[in-house]
Amino acid sequence: MANLKLHGFWYSPFTVREKWTLRLKGIPYEDIEEDRFNKSLQLLEYNPGYKRAPVLVHAGKPICEYMLIIKCIDKTWPQNPPLAIDPYEKALIHCSCWLGDLPTRSMADIKLHGFWYSPFTVKVKLTLELKGIPYENIEEDRLNMSAQVFQYNPVYKRVPVLVHDGKPICESTIIVEYIDQIWPHYPLLPTDSYERALARFWVKYADDMVPAIGSLTQSSNDEEQEKAIEKIWEHLRVIEDQCFNNDVKKFFGGDTINIVEIAVGPFLRCIEVLEEALEVKVLGDEKFPHLQSWYNNFKDVPVIKENLPDQSKMVAQEKAIEKIWEHLKVVEDQCFGDGKNVFGGDTINIVDIAFGPLITLLVVLEDALGVKILDDEKFPHLHSWYNNFKDVPVIKENLPDQDKIVAFIKVFREKLIASS
């Protein structure tokens, strides 16, 4: 039994989960109680990404994030396993927790439901392509997701969803691990328990960049842009220093792409798109030389180059939203910035009549596309005006039916796609 230490807070449900797992397996360990207001230097060193507990230290090697710790414990000490043995059942357990080397199954019917531009869908596509696994790609329409998606993912009602032999698996990282277990050729996860836990940690850290990237997408002025970029830089600095600060290794795992590349790469493509769409600089050799070098190597791998989303299409989508914001900003400042209930003062006039239906259409698009356009923080006066406008009884009674607008947009979009 190697030296085992657990850093945590006695009251934390995440720490308690680790303690239960260790005790159920009869594994002796040293319990190091951390002070939330004065965390030890060791903890901050062991978990430079999140700077939080629990952290399990096994033979001097730190493992962070409670579910990754449990997986590592279960892999290293297989007695009394808390995790399922069947890969599909294991994937379901990981999904229910919100988020091993197992026998290969025969190739069966494989379908992938997703959006072409989503970094989470791209993560799964790259995994399938790298392993040479044939599959049916089912492109979902964000305006009109298929009934199968809601049936397959009743909890989150989102993509990607992989359907293997009729069984749905949800959440991109869980899908990637499932694929890696079922088809072990070209392994994406390290075989060593510690290296595997480390890779899983950085996959989760990459996924946690989403809010920072989203903030840049929704920034409406230079100050907001600068704050959003700085937040992204914080994440990228950690990834640069901890994952790719090695001139010897071409990729995180050495000479071949592994699960960390699959997780980080699609998000860097999103950042590239935002750089072009918003005319800002986020990446670059000077600020992130190792990360940029790694990303260039990653993009040059033929199967990656062929399957990354088309940048020009993604830029066009971002620029469309940016163009709407430009118009709304002018309307916000020039028409509704004086605190009046409606443009004419206390009564609706022709300007309110002109803008009302257009804003209603934007609200419908927000709901249908899953994007935020009429943000109350970005456009507080416009948002307040619209609430006042639609609360007027005669307006409320005569606004177009939202369901009918959605139906019209869907039909119009289908015709547009068919003609292109």
TrEMBL record:
SUPFAM superfamilies: GST C-terminal domain-like, Thioredoxin-like. Keywords: Transferase. Residues 2-81, 108-187 form the GST N-terminal domain. Pfam families: GST_C (PF00043), GST_C_2 (PF13410), GST_N (PF02798). Residues 192-321 form the GST C-terminal domain. It catalyses: RX + glutathione = an S-substituted glutathione + a halide anion + H(+). Its EC number is 2.5.1.18. InterPro entries: Glutathione-S-Trfase_C-like (IPR010987), Glutathione-S-Trfase_C_sf (IPR036282), Glutathione_S-Trfase (IPR040079), Glutathione_S-Trfase_N (IPR004045), GST_C (IPR004046), GST_C_Tau (IPR045074), Omega/Tau-like (IPR045073), Thioredoxin-like_sf (IPR036249). One of its GO terms (molecular function) is glutathione transferase activity. PANTHER family: GLUTATHIONE S-TRANSFERASE, GST, SUPERFAMILY, GST DOMAIN CONTAINING, GLUTATHIONE TRANSFERASE. This is glutathione transferase. It comes from Flemingia macrophylla.
